[in-house]
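Exercise 3.2. Students should predict the tertiary structure of the chain below and write it as C-alpha cells, then compare their answer with the key that follows.

Predict this chain's 3D structure.
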Amino acid sequence: MITRFFEEFICFVTQHDHARISLDIFNCFNENLKQKTNNLDALKYSIRNHDSGWIEFDNYPKVTNDNKVYSFQDLNQELQNELWFKSINSSINPYSSLLIYEHFKYLSLNSSRENSFNDDFINKSESLIKKLLPYNLDEIRETDEFKFELSCLQICDLISLVICREKELGGKKPSLFLDNSNIIDYKLKKIDKSVYKVSSELFSKKENLFEIPYKQIELDLVMEPKKLKKKYIESELKFRKIYFIT
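Answer key:
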C-alpha cells in the first residue's frame, strides 16, 4: 500500500494501481522517446505490472502490533523480497521480468537493507532470470536500449509514487538515459495543490491529467484492525485528479 494522510483520514493506493498510473505517465511521453526501443510492448508490460506481486497482499491494509499501517516503505525485508520476487516471477514476458528485476535490484542496492537480504534476493532472482532468458544477460544490460528502458521504468515508478502521495520530488533520482552522452532531467516540481510542472522534453502535451484511485478511511480505525479491514473492503473507490503542465 501507498499511504497519504489527510486531516483525520488516511488514503490508500494499492501498489498495482500505482503501477497503472506509472504506465499512464509513460503513455504521455514524447513519441520520439518511445521510438528509442524495439521492445515497446515488453517495456509497457513491465511498467504496468512491476508491482503485480502485491495484488493479493494489498487486498486490505495491514496493521502492525503497535497500530501503524504497513506501507511499502516499512515492510520487513524478508516479505519485501517475497513480493518483489513474486512480481518478477508472475510476468508472462521474460524480457519484462529482466527489467522488473533490474528495477528492484537497483532499489535494493541503494537502500539501507541488510546485505544478507540483498544477496538472497539477487541470487534467487538471477537464477530465475537465467532460466527465462538463456542469453548473455550482461550484453543485454550494457546496451543503450536496455539502459533507456530501465530508466523509463524507474522514472515512471518514481513520478507515480510522488503524485500518489502528493509529495515533492526529493533525494537521489534517476535521469532518463538516452545514450552515454545524453540524459533528460524531467525537472518535476510541485507548483500548486495537485499541479506539477515537468520538462517538455519528456511529455508531448502542455497539459496532462492523471487520476489517482484511492480509498479514504478514518484514521482512528487504525486502532481497530478488524474494523479497518471491513471498512476498507466496503468503501467505494475515489479518484483524485493530478495535473502536469510543461
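Discussion points: The chain is about 45% helix and 20% strand. Residues 2-245 form one domain.
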